Amino acid sequence: SDLCSWRVLPAFPTLLEIPVLLAIVATSLAAQPAMMTTAKGSVQLDGQSVAAPLVLGEGQSLVLADGASVVLLYGGAATQVKGPATVSLESLQAASASTGEQVAVLDTVLARDAHTQRTGATRAAGELQLQRPIAGDQILAMHTLSWSCEGACAEESVSIYSFREDSVVWTGSGAGSVPYSGEPLAPGPYTLTLAGQEFGFKVASKDEQSALNGAVGALAGVPGSAELSTADQAALETGLLLHAGYRSDALWSLDARLATETDPDLQAARAALETQAGLAPQ
């Protein structure tokens, strides 16, 4: 029978089995994704200038000019590299052989194909533009809602309608912003009504929320992060969220950090993301 044909491996590998095991381990490590979460100065990939966030694939190399620097998330650790230098998965693998649940949680998100960015937000004819959440976005959870106006924003009523419940599930009011004070929104499509204008958004599934929140949580205290600047530490989280396609959540993350500390690099990162999302002029 098939059971009789099984071979019980010894507790310790034989000399013939060691090369095979080493090859398996090397293949597993090489498959770990690496994400560039911060890029400063001239950083190129295949001769083209690149910006963060970016996932480094097998066989690819980042070339850093003199004075340039990058922060890479790999193997459950944050690594800062300063130019002139060339960085590849192979060089990162040689410097890190981390394993464990934390690495697996992060790699699950990093291994995704880069999310195709949705079109940028547009200013409605009513001179009001929704800033948080970004219109049309999928979000993990609702935080403070905010909008911009041409001139000072007047007090406006805000409501959130759930298509699945076929009812308004939350209302509030504010002049330019209002903290979300309702229960966590269930997964599914919604409409946000503000000053008579409607903006659609979607809340991610429970499984998706769990995966992303787990990955973000795994970033807390990753080796190497303590040596990074405040902005570079923040970029670990925003880079992960942006790669997964959660631009609104990335902006909320930066908002929360800037609410407790003033950092010019953080402010610049938020402004750049808002411009990329179509929330500010190019």
Strand order of the largest sheet: 10-16-15-12-13
Label the structural class: alpha+beta
Number of helices: 7
| Mean pLDDT level | 85
Low-confidence stretches: 1-30
Tell me the fraction of residues in β-strands, as a range: 25-35%
Q: Give the biggest beta sheet.
A: 5 strands, mixed
Which value, in Å, is the CA radius of gyration?
A: 23 Å
Task: Describe the structure concisely.
The protein has seven helices and 16 strands.
Structure description:
The chain is α+β, with helices and mostly antiparallel strands and 282 residues long. It is 29% helix and 28% strand. It has helices spanning 18-30, 89-95, 101-110, 206-218, 230-244, 247-258, 264-276; strands spanning 34-40, 43-45, 48-49, 54-56, 61-64, 69-74, 77-82, 85-88, 128-132, 138-139, 145-149, 156-162, 167-174, 177-178, 188-194, 197-203. It has a five-stranded mixed beta sheet with strand order 10-16-15-12-13, with helices on one face. A four-stranded antiparallel beta sheet has the order 4-1-6-7. A four-stranded antiparallel beta sheet has the order 3-2-5-8. Helix 5 runs antiparallel to helix 6 (247-258) and helix 6 (247-258) runs antiparallel to helix 7. The chain is globular and about 55 Å long. The model is unreliable at 1-30 (pLDDT under 50).
Topology:
Blueprint: H1 18-30, E1 34-40, E2 43-45, E3 48-49, E4 54-56, E5 61-64, E6 69-74, E7 77-82, E8 85-88, H2 89-95, H3 101-110, E9 128-132, E10 138-139, E11 145-149, E12 156-162, E13 167-174, E14 177-178, E15 188-194, E16 197-203, H4 206-218, H5 230-244, H6 247-258, H7 264-276
Parallel strand pairs: 10-16
Antiparallel strand pairs: 1-4, 1-6, 2-3, 2-5, 5-8, 6-7, 9-11, 11-14, 12-13, 12-15, 15-16
